[in-house]
Design goal:
The complex is a heterodimer of chains A (141) and B (115).
Chain A lengths: L1 E7 L8 H12 L4 H21 L2 E8 L3 E9 L6 H5 L8 H5 L7 H8 L2 E7 L3 E9 L6
Helix pairs in contact in A: 1-2, 2-5
Chain B lengths: L3 H7 L3 E4 L10 E4 L3 H4 L7 E5 L4 H10 L1 E6 L7 H10 L2 E4 L4 H10 L3 E2 L2
Parallel strand pairs in B: 2-3, 2-6, 3-4, 4-5
Antiparallel strand pairs in B: 1-5
Classes of the chains: A alpha+beta (141), B alpha/beta (115).
Bound molecules: adenosine-5'-triphosphate and magnesium ion.
Magnesium ion (MG) binds next to helix 2 of chain A.
Chain lengths: 141, 115
């Protein structure tokens, strides 16, 4: 099963719509509640990062029997130092983003804690790609 | 344990939506204006006290399985916010009190902290 969502940078009105849609799909598929919560929290943080820090992006969600593999690919400024960005408290969020309740510098660390696997690659001036992998059975991985 | 209706009374609160949850009991609450902070909390059916009145507060609550939000200091809650809360089944209460005072009153009433 595959689902795709387009994300617009700066659009805080719709930020979270993709994550909400995925949450409903996981519920329909009877995915374990705790597993589902880990998925949607990580996905929502990643979706908001595109809205907050990039210009546009695509979220691709691939679900099979054993795992959910989410790829978030954005066009944006990219991340110069990924290790630094992963540190809790590091944030370049604009005042507008902070006004929306984001910019604590906790999102990437939150994603890493919730996902079974997380991969980030980025090219400065081009964009960022984040992959999140969650195993659907609570005891796997 | 207090119901959400009793809690609303303690804080001069006005229920904006999802009255059907009025008799639910509140065991734990958390107060924050930082959405990523809220998203670290693992516990379900929590009550969130916040000064942040926007759509992202509702979306954050949805992802975290937070069922109740108290907005402090009479923030302007527009109809889009209420509509999204209705759709996602999150009860909204507005209170004229500050986050500090709401937290203090709820603590006194026996609502437990998460941390
Ligand atoms: N998709 C992205 N494109 C460009 N930069 C990004 C992207 N995602 C994260 N970053 C950079 O990494 C930093 C840390 O991201 P992280 O999600 O941890 O915190 P934040 O978004 O600033 O705040 P929070 O997530 O707590 O609301 C960001 O401030 C930004 O500089
Ligand atoms: Mg973030």
């Amino acid at each position: 099963m595959q689902f795709k969502y387009k994300i617009a940078g700066g659009d805080f009105t719709n930020a979270g719509n993709a994550s909400s849609a995925v949450k409903k799909i996981l519920k329909q598929l009877n995915v374990d509640h705790t597993v589902s919560k880990h998925i949607v929290v990580a996905l929502y943080e990643a979706e908001v990062n595109i809205v907050a820090h990039a210009y546009s992006g695509v979220i691709e969600v691939n679900i099979d029997k054993n795992q959910i593999h989410i790829i978030l690919d954005d066009k944006g400024p990219g991340i110069a130092d990924i290790d630094q960005a992963m540190e809790e408290g590091y944030s370049t969020a604009s005042p507008q983003v902070r006004e929306m309740g984001f910019g604590a510098g906790m999102g990437l660390a939150n994603m890493k804690r919730n996902a079974d696997k997380m991969l980030i690659s980025s090219e400065l001036g081009k964009g960022t790609k984040v992959e999140l992998i969650h195993y659907l059975k609570p005891d796997e991985g | 344990m207090k119901t959400i209706k009793e809690i609303a009374e303690i804080i001069d609160g006005k229920v904006l939506c999802c009255h059907e949850k009025s008799d639910r009991h509140i065991e734990h609450a958390f107060a924050s204006d930082l959405m990523s902070d809220v998203l670290t909390v693992e516990m379900d059916n929590l009550l969130l006290i916040t000064g942040l009145a926007n759509l992202q507060a509702i979306r954050t609550a949805e992802m975290s399985d937070i069922s109740f939000i108290i907005f402090a200091r009479n923030k302007k809650i527009n109809s889009d916010i209420i509509a999204l809360a209705e759709e996602t089944g999150i009860m909204l209460i507005e209170s004229p009190f500050s986050v500090f005072r709401i937290s203090g009153e709820l603590y006194k009433a026996g609502v437990k902290p998460v941390y």
